Amino acid sequence: FAIHVCALLLFVNFTPPTSAYVPPSGASSWSKRVGIDAEKMRKLTNLSELIVDWNTKVNIISRNPPPTPSHVMERHIAPSVALLPMMPRNVKSVVDVGTGGGFPGLPLALCMTETDFVLCDSVGKKLKVVNDMATQLETNNVQVHHGRAEEMKSGHFDVVVGRSVADLPRFCSWVEHLMHEDSTLLYIKGGRIEDDMPLEVIEPLEDEEINDLLGADFSDKRVLKYNRGAVRLLAKQAPAIIQKKNKK
Predict the structure, then answer these.
(1) Which of 101, 105, 98 is nearest to 165 (CA)?
(2) What is the mean pLDDT of residues 202-217?
(3) CB 133, CB 61: distance < 8 Å
(4) Which residues sit opposite 121 in a β-bridge?
(5) pLDDT value at position 153?
(6) Could you tell me what percent of the chain has a pLDDT over 90?
(7) Do 126 and 185 contact (CB within 8 A), yes or no?
(8) What is the reported pTM?
(9) Would you say 51 and 75 are in contact if contact means Cβ atoms under 8 Å apart?
(10) How many whole angstroms separate alpha carbon 66 and alpha carbon 97?
(11) Which stretch, 11-20, 110-119, 188-197, has highest mean pLDDT?
(12) What DSSP string describes the chain?
């Protein structure tokens, strides 16, 4: 079911700082590269602080070592907004499947304020945190969906995003029905794409290293861009990769 962003799920009322804004060290370079202005950078900085605060209560990102706002910015937020240059034009709706602690969907929503976002995950505890952070940051373009992507209605989203949720064929089998004919998939993953495709290698429309998109050494992952036709072909390989994994 969809839960509209509201303050009813607050565990703790964290108020972002109101002091004079100072951009994180080094942020001006990569933020300009992906088209983020000062006001959006302020929101992203506040998000990094919210995540650190929440992570002491709910394990939404790794606690080893204990994360700092700069760590969250470099390892989670910046790689999320690295998708911005790869977004199609005039995107009205985005679904983030397997959002976990809100990545990449929540940072993207803070930057794409005219676009509606649905952040989907089966872990309700994390979604409550994501919902609270969206409320604290005064977003009006975010909803969360507690459940599996396979249960969601078909064909509503211009863009599907995900971050290392599963191997690419299985992920595509979960999200194919969420796409219309002109939809785009942007998927963050590490490693070789060939390892995910036991039957046939489906080359992406674009394949960009996150570090190249940001001009910074933050991530070992890349962003793959596929249209719906390719997603359909990838989804057909899901049974083969499941069988391959079961044999190990």
Answers:
(1) 98
(2) 97
(3) no
(4) 146
(5) 86
(6) 78
(7) no
(8) 0.88
(9) no
(10) 26
(11) 110-119
(12) -EEE--STT-SS------SPP-PPTTHHHHHHHTT--HHHHHHHHHHHHHHHHHHTTS-SS--SSPP-HHHHIIIIIHHHHTTGGGSPSS--EEEEET-TTTTTHHHHHHH-TTSEEEEEES-HHHHHHHHHHHHHTT-SSEEEEES-GGGSPSS-EEEEEEES-S-HHHHHHHHGGGEEEEEEEEEEE-S-GGGG-SS-----SEEEEHHHHHTSS--S-EEEEEEHHHHHHHHTTHHHHHHHHHH-
Distance of CA 185 to the CA centre of its chain: 12
Q: What amino acid occupies position 58? A: V
- For the stretch 106-142, pLDDT in tens is 999 999 999 999 999 999 999 999 999 999 999 999 9
Residue showing tokens 């985005």: 94
Across the beta sheet with 142-146, what order do the strands follow? 2-4, 142-146, 116-121, 93-97, 157-163, 179-189, 222-227, 206-209
pLDDT band at 208 (very low <50, low <70, confident <90, very high): very high
The residue assigned the tokens 């983030």 is 96
Residue 26 has which token pair?
């080094």
The tokens describing 95, both together, are: 């679904």
Amino acid at 238: A
Which residue reads 């199609």 in tokens? 88
